[in-house]
Design brief:
Elements (H helix, E strand, L loop, with lengths): L31 H4 L6 H12 L8 H7 L4 H13 L3 E7 L5 E7 L3 H13 L33 H11 L1 H4 L7 H16 L4 H9 L10 H11 L23 E3 L6 E3 L7 H9 L1
Antiparallel strand pairs: 1-2, 3-4
Helix pairs in contact: 2-4, 3-4, 6-8, 8-10
Length: about 280
């Protein structure tokens, strides 16, 4: 009787194996140009997937996305800029009937196809019909309309106060210099502190306490993290009757015009001793 020959077991294939089932509802189509994009970060790819799955009219502001995901406003803002750079997202200004200007976000699920169509339109412009020799010459073109000045959306007073607070941080520490764009972007987070009853001096103290001794490469990222992670809780309504300690104003140092001694004052002039001695002299 011949020996039975057993076949060797098949070697397992290395790498990913897919087990796919058809989606009957609740799905979104994502192209490989996005899922396998070489220049987009994983955060940007995931954020683009989430945005394309949302119904029309959903809010995709930085604040709304930061409340939905754990990455925070800084990383989400950077991911949105990546998507804008590569054509997956566009943020346009539109005017409402009330005159206010709002930002409209447009999501593109296939930017490569959109670029191809635009290129084809540029290469093959529509041919114009031949001119009619019996027709009258074209009239002079009408002057271009003067663009109407559109008022900007009204900024809440507490957010204006938050912008001023953030801009003054560089007076406390020169490493905390923020750009105007970062100041506007972080102002809503700082305004939440003020809305919870904190005076500006307390917010500044919390943001500048125990700063790292090394170089701060991204002050906006540091401040954004502290504004988000150290946000104090709301005070119960029963405590609203307690008086609030007024904010202490620290005036800048100035040199006395007489003795050249340093003193703090809102305006230049003489120190207390020289000011008292001036009438007697």
């Amino acid at each position: 009787m011949a020996d039975q020959q057993l076949s060797a077991p098949s070697r397992a294939v290395s790498g990913i194996r897919h087990i796919n089932h058809d989606h009957r509802r609740g799905y979104v189509k994502i192209g490989n140009h996005l899922a396998q994009h070489r220049e987009l970060s994983m955060t940007a790819i995931g954020l683009a997937t989430h945005i394309q799955s949302l119904p029309a009219g959903s809010k995709v502001t930085i604040k709304a996305l930061a409340e939905r995901f754990p990455e925070g406003e800084v990383r989400i803002a950077a991911a949105l800029r990546e998507l804008e750079t590569h054509g997956y997202l566009a943020r346009l200004k539109e005017r409402l009937p009330s005159g206010h200007v709002v930002t409209c976000t447009v999501s593109y699920n296939n930017p490569p196809a959109r670029s191809t169509e635009t290129h084809r339109e540029r290469r093959e412009p529509a041919s114009a019909p031949p001119p009619d020799p019996d027709s009258d010459p074209d009239p002079e073109p009408a002057p271009a309309p003067v663009p109407e000045e559109v008022p900007e959306a009204e900024v809440p007073e507490v957010e204006i106060q938050a912008r001023e607070l953030l801009a003054r941080l560089r007076l406390r520490d020169q490493r905390l210099v923020l750009s105007e764009r970062d100041t506007v972007r972080l102002a809503p987070a700082a305004a939440r502190w003020l809305e919870r009853g904190l005076v500006p001096g307390a917010v500044v103290a919390a943001l500048t306490r125990a700063l790292p001794s090394a170089t701060i490469h991204s002050p906006a990222a540091l401040l954004g993290h502290r504004l988000r992670e150290q946000l104090p809780p709301r005070i119960p309504d029963a405590w609203a009757a307690y008086p609030v300690v007024p904010d202490r104003v620290v005036h800048p140092l100035r040199s006395c015009e007489d003795c050249d001694r340093a003193f703090r004052s809102p305006v230049p002039g003489r120190c207390t001793s020289c000011a008292a001695a001036a009438p007697a002299a």
